[in-house]
Amino acid sequence: MFSLTPKQMVIWRLRRRGLRQAEIAREIGILRQEVNRAVLAIDSRVERALIEAARMNKLNVLHVDPVNGILEAYSPSYKIPVIISFSEANCIQVWYLYEGRCNECERINSCREMLIAEARERQIELTEEDIKADPTHLAKKIFARYLRILG
Questions:
Q1: How many domains does the chain have?
Q2: ∠17-151-64 over CA atoms, to 5°?
Q3: What pTM did the predictor assign?
Q4: pLDDT digits (tens, 9 = 90+) for 25-59
Q5: How remote is the C-alpha of 134 from its chain's centroid?
Q6: Cβ pair 62, 73 in contact under 8 A
Q7: Domain residues for 95?
Q8: Is residue 151, in this structure, part of any structural domain at all?
Q9: In the structure, how many helices (H) and strands (E) does the chain have?
Q10: What is the per-residue burial (b if ≥16 Cβ within 10 Å, else e) of 74-93?
């Protein structure tokens, strides 16, 4: 299973919030050069994990954004866009963006809770209407800011 070390996770989280390397170094009390080395390792590990998840799901990779933990892909089998995300809350998750039958699925509440945690971690505001939407629509709302395929 993929994971970052606790220190790498802190650096990744702070960087995703927009802090520069010097600010991250001050925040956690290490040298900027150490942050730089960690960032290179983090980006490499996140990118590899996202690409491996795409490979295991037989997806065509379109774009990888290791800073935000997002991989855009396309499923040739289902002919639909797919997002693979990495987050502290959910680790690696695969989101097929199609008009499915979420309301008929026993996992609808679990998917919705995971997506709400993803939004919270990414500091994305959700309305009550968003929270009640089916997971496919909720995923599109949460990941739209990162994606070329939803643009």
A1: 1
A2: 55
A3: 0.89
A4: 999 999 999 999 999 999 999 999 999 999 999 99
A5: 19
A6: yes
A7: 6-146
A8: no
A9: 6, 4
A10: bbeeeebbbbbbbbbbeebb
